[in-house]
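chain below, 176 aa
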Amino acid sequence: MPSEVAPRVTLVAAYADNRVIGDGGSIPWHISEDFAHFKAVTIGGVLVMGRTTWDSIGRPLPGRTTIVLTRDTSWSADGALVAHSLEEALTLAGSLDGEIFVVGGAQVYLLALPLATHQVLTEVHLSPSGDALYPPFALDEWTATRRESRPDLGLDWVWWERSNEPQSVFGGSDRA
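prediction:
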């Protein structure tokens, strides 16, 4: 029986002060502690990512189910489920066990932001050049529920919760 409450959809990203998240298919910084944070947040969940993000990782991440969003109807990869629209990806993710995490890239974040209920963002205090940006979001639609500042790492981890109703592809109530 389908749930009456739409699933929680969390965007997880690390972005620089200038909103850069990537450059040429790679992350323009390497912070081991943030990779560990990403793993701790997403372990046991269902990851929704674009094909470019999949290609940059190159493999399924252990302890998580991966859904790759691609327009290429012939694309497949071992260890990945495939969807050809964000609605298809989120519907598939909602049918699986685990919280739904949207993990990139820029186009997928932009499409998913109106549907997200939560964000877990790493604010990296750098301003590198890059060709992929995290989309801006209206601060009056979100409440920061937790902030962990790590000046020793040059970053802040921030947990956000939507303070208004997100759009939904699931039907029914949008709030858990």
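The longest helix spans residues 32-42. Strands lie at 9-16, 20-22, 46-50, 65-69, 81-83, 100-102, 118-124, 132-133, 142-150, 155-162.
thats it, cya
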